[in-house]
Write a structure and sequence with these properties.
7 helices, mainly alpha, 151 residues
Length: 151
Amino acid sequence: MENRLSLFCDRVIEAGWLASAVTVPLFFNIFSSRVFEPDKLTLLRSIVLIMAAAWLIRFLVSPQARHFSFSGVLRSSPLAIPVLLFAAVYLVASAVSVAPRISVWGSYVRLQGLITNLSYFTLFFLVAERLRSRQQVNRLVGVIIATSVPI
């Protein structure tokens, strides 16, 4: 049986992917001198960090979460293995880069570095592992459609 903390963590994780589906596409800072990308990525990194912390807490306190199997996630999603291979390639490329600092953190203008890509990978695997019911899928699709209207 799930305890209250693990159920709360599940809700935080779902709220995180819904919040990222809403806020990241809609976020636009008119007072920034940089292109819009770094501000959105900082927001996405923060949301994914909260989601990852909730997943870790859930893993530590829930007896069912201790039976987590990464191979189960790999089998349940057809994109899991290509994403994992892409993450491995990105890690190796950043490790042997000519400019490792820029490869890890990204440039000032775009922030598209290893940390940002690890956020993308983490978001993918959290959604792949925790998106289980039809109601969750309907909420996610509804949020994406509703967000696309003002865009």
